[in-house]
Design a protein that fits this description.
Length: 339
């Protein structure tokens, strides 16, 4: 029996890899197209686009693995049935229960991996992605450039003589006018830095002038920071459970938590249908296996979407119960009674 299980899993694994890679590439292209829309708001180079892709990589894996498992498992049985190998096994006394047990272990491992992915990894990468984009939007708001009309930098009016190739600025002048005094700062060089989510302007080798009706003062400085000008509003992250049950966007997170929980269970909940579709179709000499695979995936995701808004967290037990009952009825009718 061990050799038989190994033989079935070898057929499954070869199909799994051949299907996962194309689906992974297609999903990656879709997400990259989505990420490219951010370039309309912020400026991103190739390395920054690669960083954003790494942030969405757990999400890509999460959505491709369950479907790949179901399709590969079904088609591996379809291939064995089409070659009459499954019929021979049943004739030798092998029960459908053995095939179920063969796919149970990889389905359980995949489910645990998916739960860890969306419950632990995804919150971390989502916060990193959000903070990164927030920082880039903060930089975009500066939009500092050499101009005779000047730039707005918080409460300061900023004039830049030239912009260097390394992103720094030369011949910088800042002016701030208050009710009782005026402040003028000049610097040979300046650059924008990020300090814990706060964008600051660092001035190097300059002078400062303070003028009021009472006095006039001047200072020389090597380094000066213009602080607290533009905050990027970074999101703090502590623990996954606090992320999922925080009040921020609570309704959206609840919907995603319910949906992803059921998607994680998809490999386990579809084991009955894997055997029904993979064996029944060849038994009746039909070629609708791909249609039934598509209908299964669409039906499962459709039920999740339809019931999520109605039952909220009760959607999870309701979907599990309904899906297992329907799947077992089909399994008993088309497999148990005949084999």
């Amino acid at each position: 029996m061990t050799r038989l299980k190994k033989y079935i899993l070898n057929n499954f694994s070869s199909l799994f890899m051949s299907m996962f890679l194309p689906l992974f590439v297609i999903a990656s292209v879709i997400f990259l197209i989505k990420l490219s829309t951010y370039t309309a708001v912020v400026q991103l180079n190739v390395l920054e686009m690669g960083k954003l892709y790494l942030f969405v990589l757990p999400e890509i894996i999460f959505y491709t693995l369950p479907v790949t498992f179901f399709v590969a498992a079904t088609l591996s049985l379809f291939k064995l049935s089409n070659d009459n190998e499954i019929i021979v096994l049943f004739a030798l006394g092998v029960k459908p229960r053995l095939i179920m047990q063969t796919f149970l272990k990889p389905a359980l491992i995949l489910t645990l991996l998916l739960v860890f992915d969306f419950l632990i990894v995804s919150p971390h990468t989502a916060v990193l992605s959000k903070n990164f984009l927030s920082y880039k939007r903060g930089e975009a708001k500066l939009n500092l450039a050499a101009s005779e009309f000047g730039n707005s930098f918080g409460d300061w009016l900023l004039f830049i003589g030239a912009k260097n190739d390394d992103g720094t600025f030369a011949k910088v002048v800042l002016f701030n006018k208050e009710k009782r005094q005026e402040i003028l700062l000049t610097a040979d060089k300046a650059k924008v830095i990020n300090d814990s989510g706060i964008l600051r302007l660092e001035l190097l080798d300059g002078k400062g002038y303070n003028y009021s009706t009472e006095k006039f003062s001047q200072i020389n400085f090597k380094t000066m920071l213009i602080n607290n000008t533009l905050k990027t509003g970074l999101t703090s992250y502590t623990q996954p459970l606090k992320y999922w049950f925080s009040k921020e966007n609570a309704q959206g997170k609840r919907y995603v938590l319910i949906r992803n929980s059921l998607i994680s269970l998809f490999p386990l909940l579809t084991l009955f249908l894997v055997i029904v579709i993979g064996i029944k179709e060849v038994r009746h000499q039909k070629s609708n296996v791909y249609l039934y695979i598509l209908l299964t995936v669409v039906s499962y995701y459709g039920i999740i979407t339809a019931l999520n808004k109605m039952f909220h967290y009760y959607t999870i037990p309701v979907v599990i119960f309904l899906w297992l009952v329907i799947s077992y009825i089909l399994y008993k009718r088309y497999i148990i009674k005949k084999f």
